[in-house]
Amino acid sequence: MHSYRTHHCAALTIADVGKTVRLSGWVHRKRDHGNLLFVDLRDHYGITQLVAAEGNPQLDALSHVALESVVTVSGKVVARAAETVNKELPTGEIEIVVEEYHLESAADPLPLQINAERDQPEETRLKYRFLDLRREKIHRNIMLRSQVISSLRRRMTESGFNEFQTPILTASSPEGARDYLVPSRIHPGKFYALPQAPQQFKQLLMVSGFDKYFQIAPCFRDEDGRADRSPGEFYQLDVEMSFVTQEDVFAAIEPVLHGVFTEFGGDKKVTPAPFPRMTYKDAMLKYGSDKPDLRNPIEIVDVTEEFKHETVTFNAFRKIIEAGGVVRAIAAPKTGKHPRSFFDKLNDWATEEGAPGLGYVILEHPEGMDEHTGGGRVVGKGPIAKFIPDTVLAKIAEKAGAKGYDTLFFACDNPSLAAKFAGKVRTKLGEELKLLEKNVFKFLWVVDFPYFEYDEEEKKIIFSHNPFSMPQGGMEALTTKNPLDILAYQYDIVCNGVELSSGAIRNHKPDIMYKAFEIAGYGPEVVDRKFGGMISAFKFGAPPHGGLAPGVDRMVMLLADEPNIREVIAFPMNQKAEDLLMNAPAPADEKQLRELHLQLSPKAKQILVGEA
Predict the structure, then answer these.
(1) Angle formed by the axes of helices 246-264 and 136-158, to 10°?
(2) Are strands 443-447 and 490-495 parallel, antiparallel or unpaired?
(3) DSSP-derived pairing of the beta strands 94-105 and 47-53
(4) At 303, is the secondary structure helix, strand, or coil?
(5) What is the pLDDT of residues 134-175, one digit of tens each?
């Protein structure tokens, strides 16, 4: 017999009754009935019930073993009594009468409970992550992650892609998030950077003649954490293809994403390929976001012209419109009869979001008119209703698709801020009114992103998405158009309001790249210094190419129906980018600093003294 086990803890069934077996695992739960002890033994695969009755020489030892201790037991498989069968477990029809027992490793008192899915302090969970990972739900999430990655690899390989690894120690990039820098010991004063993405290397692979590349790639960015973004590092399905158009990239990745979400999404419906396309401009107008959640049926409409009407006397909006602002309307269905507290809470929320308030009009049809019938004269009530004549209100209601006892909420600001706030209102209403369609994964391509945008803080034009993208119209667009009017062959894939990936058809022509960086304020010497390897490669014959990189962490988060990305990462950092388990980041000793030709600033020393 094997030293530790003949079966795992989910393997035994009624067909094994009468066999003598050996199991090893963790003591998950104990139920002591005085002269009868039941122990649930758990391993990676599942749970098997052990039993020891009065007179069993192992009863005392089993009674005193601490939860989460590791034990090995041998015994005979017996059938449970009919009334004690547990249909929730694969092993629920049997139990093991313990004959031999050995304690492999005793457990100290536990800082968190393993055998119940109760809320635990996040700091405790991360500090003792090895215990947290024993809990059923988080263990299941990490196994789902493993299976998703295996499925992605299989599907990509079957589609003709080849997996290549790219460097982890590389050069810093002037665009994107902050780099993690790694000081060089043998090159004093110089630094490597951990890759924010394998962007340049995967493009160089295309220049090298490899046609279809993919990689489950680790990426490193020094940025703040949030619910859908892990600080420090993350993984993505990195993809690049040669001799492709934007539609070719879509056609290659859609079956992979559809297949994975169908395979692991349970009974949830998945958008069939081809996924719908929407321009960035339309997404910002209709949904107030470049990653709209299509489960929410509410659409935003522009009602600036209606508010310009001479009979509208709402001066707060009029002044903003005269300064170049716009008005967006968001219709909330069947909210007209909600209590005043509903509207007051929304107004309080709006002020917390930085808005001066949330103007609204409740639509009421004259008495006797069906509340579901559109058209006709509309009567409004609410804080700003008196400033909008009924005839204008009727046009606004018709444009917004609003009917009797719906509410029209309004956002008024410059086009960018109005769109974003209206998008937040749409999302808030969708959640508050429980309007989101259930049991679906709704995919969407957002296309035609602006190539450049104006940075109000820096007072200059910057790249809006990816500096390595091909501008639509090529060199002609860069030399003849207003930079802010130029669109790019850039695209995002969105699912249920979560951006899974950005991608682009790449700029493979050196002259166009130099010109694009010139517009963004970088001279040719900067391009040569920062991207010398890639720009040099393009001068020796580069194929048209493009790709994208869906985030693995976010895919698993959606499939596991988890609101926080840390629930699908084995060893995540907290929101402060701290690893509480391994105590990172930690101070370096003086010897290490000397070897790296580094010394701490007075401020850093002061901070470390304060933490000591």
Answers:
(1) 140
(2) antiparallel
(3) parallel
(4) coil
(5) 999 999 999 999 999 999 999 999 999 999 999 999 988 765
Torsion sign across C-alpha atoms 137, 143, 145, 148: negative
If you average pLDDT over residues 174-193, what whole number do you get? Answer: 89
Instruction: Please count the CA atoms within 13 angstroms of the CA of 235 that sit on its side-chain side.
Output: 22
User: For 24-61, how does the pLDDT look when each residue is reduced to its tens digit (9 = 90+)?
Assistant: 999 999 999 988 999 999 999 999 999 999 999 999 99
* C-alpha closest to that of 67 among 104, 127, 115: 115
Q: Write 531-535 long-range contacts (CB < 8 A, 24+).
A: 531/200, 533/200, 533/204, 534/200, 534/203, 534/204, 534/207, 534/468, 535/510
* Strands annotated E in 320-470: 326-332, 359-364, 379-381, 407-413, 440-441, 443-447, 452-455, 460-463
Structure tokens at 146: 């493993």
Q: How many CB atoms lie within 10 A of CB 310?
A: 6
**Do the Cβ atoms of 470 and 512 come closer than 8 Å?**
yes
Rounded CA-CA distance 462/448 in Å is 17
Closest CA to 10 of 49, 67, 39, 58: 49
Helical residues (DSSP H) of 65-167, grouped into ranges: 122-127, 129-132, 136-158
376, 368 Cβ separation under 8 angstroms: no
Please tell me the distance from the alpha carbon of residue 338 to that of residue 16, in angstroms, as a whole number: 61
User: Taking the CA of residue 502 as centre, how many other CA atoms within 13 Å lie in the half-sphere pointing to its CB?
Assistant: 17
**Mean pLDDT value across residues 282-289:** 97
Compute the distance between CA of residue 213 and CA of residue 546 in angstroms, rounded to an integer. Answer: 11
Extract the tokens encoding 467: 């500096």
What gap in Å lies between CA 470 and CA 482, rounded to an integer? Answer: 16
| Residue carrying the six token digits 């419906």 | 269
Query: What's the predicted TM-score (pTM) here?
Result: 0.92
Q: Is the dihedral of CA 93, 7, 139, 141 positive or negative?
A: negative
Rg (CA), the chain: 30
Residue 69: which of 153, 162, 131 has the closest Cα?
131
